[in-house]
Structures are given as C-alpha cells and as structure tokens.
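Inverse folding, one chain.
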C-alpha cells in the first residue's frame, strides 16, 4: 500500500477511535461507592412549584437528591385505560407516574414515565429557579371513572382547578393522549398579575446503560420543525487541543416564541405537551442523575414549558388547556395528532425515507407477525426492486475490468501529465461506450435507504423485545457473551455482516485506481464499527442485503464475459 492509502486508512481509524472515545466520555462511569457526607457536586437549578406561601430558599450548595418531605399526606388517584395507568398526586396536582401497561422493561416490570424525585407532569410552576421545590397541596375529587379533578387556593386568593381525562384514539387503541384543563379564578378583591408560568413535563431517563446521550433529549417544535438539546449539552468539555473548552452547565433556558409543543424524550418513549389555548413562550431543562442499579447512575433530563403571563380582575377566570402524550414513540399514532407531534421522532433529512420504511415494515409485520421476518421481507423487496439496476451496474463493472489493461497503458504513458491522462481515459470510455460511474448508481440509491434505516431502526419502538432466532431484542445488539478478560460483547450478526461484505468485495471486479481499491478494503471495518453496538435489526438488514448481492454476482458471473466493441461515432446531422 502506498503512502496515500496509508494516510486515508490512518485517518479513518483515528476518526473511529475518536468517536468511540467521545461516546465513552458521554456515558456515565460506574461510580465507586461514595460517602454522602463527603461527596461533592455542582448545585443545580430546579423550578419552584406554584404554591400558596413559598418559603425562602435555603442557602445550601449540595445537589438536589429528593424533594423535601411535605407537611401533608400524599394521596394518589388513578386513571386507567387499556394502555396506560396514570398515578396522579395531590402534591402539585399532576401525574406522578405514567405506567405503560403494554410496554415491558427489565425484570418483567412495566415501563414507567417520569421519576418520583421530579415535579409531577402538569404541575404549574410560578418561580423559575430554586434548589428545593415545595409542592402545594391540592384536593382531589373523581367526577367519574375517567376524570380526576384537583383544586387548590393560593395566598393571593386565586383558586386553581385542574382536570385530567383521556382522549380516545381514532383507532380505539394506543390511548396515550391525556387532556389537562386548568382554570384560575381570582376570588380576591385585588387584580392578580401573572408574569408567566411554567408547566412541568416530568423527566426522561435512558432505557439501557449504554444508550447514546443523544437519545435523552429536551425537544420543542416551532413551525413544524423540531429543535432540542440532549443530556450531553449540560456536561463539561475539554475541547479539542484546548479549543472549545467549557464548564458544566446546571440548566438550560431559552425564550422560544410560538412553540407548538415541548417534550422530554428518550430512545423509545416521550412525554410531550402541547398547549391548546396559546403557544409556549419558553423552555427550561435540567440534567440530573438517576439510579439504574445499586452501583450505577445514568444521566437523565427533566423539563418544563413556559406560557405567557396574564392578568385577572376580581371575579375573572383564566383558562388553559394542554394535550399530553405520555407513551411510546409510535409514528402512526403521533402523526394523527394535530400539532406536528411526529417530529419528536427526529428523522432528520431522511424523514421521507424513514416514514416509508417504518410504515412498510409495520405493514409486512401485520401480514407475517414477526419483525425479524418483516425485515428480511423488506430487504427482499428492496433488492428485487433494484435487481435490474444492479445487473446493469455489474455488467458495467465487468466491462471496466476488461478495459483495465488499456487503461493501465494510458496511465503509464501519461503518468507525468495527469490532465492529458484523464482526457485520454474519457476518450477511451466514450470509444467503447462505457459509463465509468455506472457501477456506482445502486450504491447511490442504497445510501439514503441505509441511513434511513439507521435513523428509523434507532427509534422504532415496535422492535423493542421483538425476538428473532437467538436475538432477544431486535432494538438492541444481539450480544451472546462477553470476552473473559476484556469484557467486550460478542455480537454475531454484525460479524456476519462484515464477513459477507468482505466476501462480496472479493467477488467484485477489480476496477479503478489500486489505491482506491485498497482503501475500500477497509469499508467492512468501518461498517462494523458503526453497526456493532447498534440495533441488531440494522445488521440483519445489511447482512441479508449482502447475501442477495452475492447471489446476484454469482448469477452474473455465469453469463458470458462482455466483449469490448468500439461504438460507432454518431453521424452529424446534415444542415
């Protein structure tokens, strides 16, 4: 291998190793057990919840670990349907936890949204930053089995009523939408002025200890376009060679006029709130540590959306309505909601490809009943659709291979004149009617498909706990063991993917520049790095695609070798 090839290979390896180091730094290490009295951490900012008589902030510098014990007994009311159980608390009058009845977590437990250490979903927040919030007491009442109402009164004689109830899904399933109606009535004798308030979104935490930091996010949508930050935004950074250094940031706050909704989200689940009477005016977020195991903590995020202020004369009432989606990121369900809620999926520039592939995969699953088989069927359909194009590309590559001796002669002849060499090569291609990029067309078509699958499969909650052969969960790596000393996972399907890709490259006709061919030899290594710890579904798709390509190459090789024939020049039109 010449110097250029070695430089390219070295840069690829350095880039891949650097990416893995960056991801490793973002992941929280397994901490040693620390004495709580000696442990230190930077203070964080937490919203103060709307209350009757707020106590002064305590001058403490220790981090928030739990909310202070209330002066009243907590009471829980429950709203339930076939998909979710809401546990509503009189502390702040909100949703303490949302238990997803059809989504299973580890150890046979249901997935639970929000953490008890954070403000309840829907808690009204008046003051923005305080170390230890005090949740006001509300009185709960149940109008029926499907409605829970909270009532409370502030020190300014403003009565607050909050009503929670489910909205029905158009398909009578996937009922994860809750409406929260808020009424504030001024029962005092003086005008009440509110300069703006916040509504708590609850929190989102990683599902698995090796989740990418980009999965745990605070997201908002303006004019149909989603924006957001992830938990990595709050951490400190050493920069690159001393450039771009920054200290850890305790909280995030931004004024965002006209936001349609704000959400906290992890890889597969979200708590999303859309104000129905006025658009959100600001967003707030904070990173905190949540306990995953007795010796491991993971970075999580909590958030709140800000609403414009209002004024109430004595006897007047202010009303606001909020639509809350607390459940899995099911694209077909989110797309039915009227405020661009599906943008929380974060498909990016491959949105149309992701939407088509996700809907098509779910359609195949409705017929086959198995997501592993659905992915194989999806691969088969894509490959059969591209089969004629790939045939022409394979023929073009075989013609280029037959033309290779003549090309090499020209390169030797004009090795000191690159411009003339390229001109003569183009004449040679034209002389024999060969398109030098004809073999690249199928690859150019498959690039958006691959990255569309990469984005889609990374968030397809349908693949959670979907089994296939030895794979226990198609949304996670198919780890069957760990190396004894190093602890590295052994993932079978990505290794099969790399092996089939090497096999495919060995079958491909040798065309083009030798340096480029040597560099391309490292493509399987690059894809192995990308897919090794990703969803097994992606590696399954790519392995099946490689096997189809190998089969097609074998079929093409059985055909006669294309002969090189000069193309007759096109006759000029007579004037």
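Residues assigned per position:
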């Amino acid at each position: 291998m010449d110097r250029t090839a070695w430089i390219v290979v070295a840069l690829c390896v350095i880039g891949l190793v650097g990416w893995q180091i960056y991801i490793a730094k973002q992941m929280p290490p397994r901490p040693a057990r620390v004495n709580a009295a000696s442990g230190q951490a930077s203070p964080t900012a937490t919203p103060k919840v709307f209350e009757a008589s707020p106590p002064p902030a305590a001058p403490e510098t220790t981090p928030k670990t739990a909310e202070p014990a209330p002066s009243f007994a907590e009471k829980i009311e429950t709203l339930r349907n076939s998909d979710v159980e809401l546990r509503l608390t009189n502390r702040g009058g909100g949703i303490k936890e949302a238990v997803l009845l059809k989504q299973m977590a580890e150890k046979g437990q249901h997935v639970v949204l929000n953490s008890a250490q954070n403000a309840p979903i829907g808690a009204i927040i008046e003051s923005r930053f305080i170390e230890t919030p005090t949740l006001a007491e509300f009185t709960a009442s149940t109008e029926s089995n499907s409605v829970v109402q909270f009532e409370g009164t502030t020190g300014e004689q403003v009565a607050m009523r909050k009503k929670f109830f489910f909205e029905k899904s158009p398909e009578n399933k996937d009922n994860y939408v809750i409406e929260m109606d808020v009424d504030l009535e001024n029962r005092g004798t003086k005008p009440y002025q509110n300069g703006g308030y916040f509504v708590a979104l609850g929190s989102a935490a990683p599902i698995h200890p090796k989740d990418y930091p980009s999965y745990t996010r605070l997201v908002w949508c303006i004019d149909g376009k989603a924006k957001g930050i992830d938990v990595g935004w709050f951490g400190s950074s050493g920069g690159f060679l001393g450039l771009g250094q920054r200290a850890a940031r305790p909280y995030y706050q931004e004024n965002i006029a006209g936001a349609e909704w704000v959400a906290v989200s992890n890889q597969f689940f979200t708590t999303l709130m859309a104000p129905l009477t006025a658009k959100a005016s600001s967003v707030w977020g904070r990173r905190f540590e949540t306990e995953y195991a007795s010796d491991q903590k993971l970075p999580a995020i909590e958030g709140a959306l800000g609403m414009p202020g209002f004024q109430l004369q004595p006897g007047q009432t202010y009303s606001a309505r909020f639509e809350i989606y607390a459940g899995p990121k099911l694209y077909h369900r989110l797309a039915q909601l009227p405020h661009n809620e599906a943008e929380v999926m974060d498909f990016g520039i491959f949105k149309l490809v992701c939407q088509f592939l996700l809907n098509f995969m779910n359609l195949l699953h409705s017929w086959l009943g198995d997501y592993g088989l659905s992915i194989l069927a999806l691969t088969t359909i894509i490959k059969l659709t591209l089969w004629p194009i790939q045939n022409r590309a394979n023929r073009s590559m075989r013609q280029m291979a037959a033309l290779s001796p003549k090309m090499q002669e020209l390169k030797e002849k004009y090795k000191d004149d690159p411009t003339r060499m390229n001109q003569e090569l183009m004449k040679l291609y034209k002389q024999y009617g060969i398109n030098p990029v004809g073999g690249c067309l199928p690859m150019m078509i498959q690039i958006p498909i691959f990255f569309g699958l990469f984005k889609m499969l990374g968030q397809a909650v349908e693949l959670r706990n979907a089994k296939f052969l030895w794979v226990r969960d198609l949304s996670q790596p198919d780890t069957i063991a760990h190396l004894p000393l190093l602890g590295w996972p052994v993932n079978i399907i990505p290794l099969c993917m790399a092996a089939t890709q090497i096999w495919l490259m060995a079958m491909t006709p040798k065309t083009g520049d030798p340096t480029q061919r040597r560099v391309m030899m490292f493509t399987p290594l690059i894809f192995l790095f990308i897919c090794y710890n990703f969803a097994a579904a992606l590696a399954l798709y790519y392995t099946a695609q490689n096997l189809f390509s190998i089969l097609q190459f074998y079929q093409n090789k059985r055909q006669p070798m294309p002969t090189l024939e000069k193309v007759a020049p096109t006759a000029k039109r007579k004037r």
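The chain is about 30% helix and 25% strand. The domain at 44-53+72-235+248-346 is CATH 2.70.98.90 (Beta-galactosidase; Chain A, domain 5).
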